[in-house]
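1st attempt posting a full record on here, be nice pls
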Amino acid sequence: MGDGTEAGGSKADGQQGPARDRKTLTKRQQALLYFNTTRRKFWAGAALVAVWFLLMVLLDDRPYLELIPNFVLYAGIPILWVLFTHGAGLIKPVPMPADIMRQDAPGRFSNQEEWESPLPPEEAFAALQELFTQTGVRTEVMDASLWVELGKEWQAAEWWHRDAAPHMKRRPSLLFFVQAADGGSRVTAFSVDRALGGLYDVVKLSDEMSATAVGLARKATGAPPQAKPPKGRRK
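the predicted structure (as tokens):
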């Protein structure tokens, strides 16, 4: 894609990823991956500021159009944010190559847990898919990752803040990756979505649900139970 960056391939701000044929990507994915270098991000931001300043000058003597420059600026900022984060910060991220999604996941989620599974990668991934075919759970395969959304109807444990379920506006989300490893596979789970907000009880319930989902994923993939709670809980 120029600048030494291959789509999905991707030298992204100094990080290397496996090469991917650009033809296999959608137009939306190619557009998001175009802003995969610091230089392109800088010029996109500079162009937005330049357009805003130019409109300010051109419309300075037209009071009835004075809101247009600020509208362009305030609309452009979230658009650039989506482009720069490859759509990872949206309610549901844009499906992207797995190496890109894994690169962006720590910016969205507070928790990252990893464990070894005795199952081959294909079986471990299938076990996760089967686990989350439950009432109140939505899943989507995104390249080699599994996106999971937990709804208020999901009843997998007796959570301390379960009475807050009717007040949940957003679904707690998780993202799983499965890679080959010696003797089986390595599963990585990203949880505790930073994008969630709301009342204290609602936020704590989403954290409890996420922790339950990761615990069940460990069990489903044949990993030993975790000895202590994971670090990185939402503060």
